Amino acid sequence: MNATERINFIKNALYSEKRVTIADMADKLQVSYPTVRKYFDQITKSDTSISKIHGGLKIESDDNNDLAIYYKRLIKNEKEKKEIAAKALGFVTEKCTVLLDSSSTTFELAKAMLNLSFRFTVITNGISTARLLSKNENITTIVLPGIIYKNSNTIIDEFSFNFTEQFNIDLFFFSATGLTLDGGFSEYNLQEVRHKAKNIKKAKKAIALIDSSKFGKCSSANFATLEDIHTLITDSYLDKESLDLFKTRANVL
After folding, report:
1. Which residues have a Cβ under 8 Å from the Cβ of 182 and sit 6 or more positions away?
2. For position 152, what pLDDT does the model report?
3. Residue 177, SS3?
4. Cβ neighbours of residue 54 under 8 Å, at least 6 residues apart?
């Protein structure tokens, strides 16, 4: 295993068992205690839901709840999401206002944003995303108002605050459950469908972050077509035939 694979092994064990120890991970990975401590440090820096305990790590989650499912999504297709985030980061400029959805792909973008040294503003309805971005003093982090449903990582505006109408949104980065050529972008959460459709129209540039595993899939409801967005960012694992086909309908990176 390389370092990334070992870190993912630790995360998987943590999400399953809720606690892991240095001794146990060192034994299972066949590495030294200092190496495991280094991995633990990297994990806690990138995910504020995970905290250190004496001799190990812990996470407050239940395998059967939605929050645990979200945590597991963070490491699914992680390599692809990092590639997408690296491309998306180039759109972020000084003093711009960025809107992020609560997806695991935009969370990866938020991790990349921590390395930026200039000032800008991020608005998000993702709880983990907001907590992570607050670590960078150059980023003004604004959390959208609304309801946090049980065990959810997402804040849903059920009061029609129209909070984002108060801001000039330069960039809206979003993901989707599925993307098809004719149907466009789809999502299973109907509240998210409504808000994503509105935010795509509001933003100066709507940028879709879609990993290759989501192409050709369709979820409960569509919220945008390929023509509605500025750019579609994906990873290098998308087959050439699909890539060429989608490039006929959108600006694809």
Report:
1. none
2. 67
3. coil
4. none
22, two tokens: 């240095």
Residue spans of the chain under pLDDT 50? 62-67, 69
Helix ranges (H only) for the chain are 3-17, 22-29, 33-46, 66-75, 78-89, 104-113, 127-133, 190-202, 240-247
Residue 57, helix vs strand vs coil:
strand
Helix or strand or coil: residue 151?
coil
What is the sign, positive or negative, of the torsion defined by CA atoms of 25, 31, 37, 42? negative
Q: Which two tokens stand for residue 101?
A: 């959805």
Residues 169 and 123 sit within 8 Å (Cβ to Cβ): yes
The pLDDT, as a whole number, for residue 66 is 45
173 phi and psi, to 5 degrees? Answer: -95, 130
- Residue 53: helix, strand or coil by DSSP? strand
Residues 6+ apart with CB under 8 A from 17: none
Distance CA 66, CA 206 (A): 27
Residue 219: the pLDDT is: 83
CA contacts within 13 A on the Cβ side of 196: 28
Name the burial class of residue 239, with classes exposed (0-12), middle (13-18) and buried (19+) by CB atoms within 10 angstroms of its CB. exposed
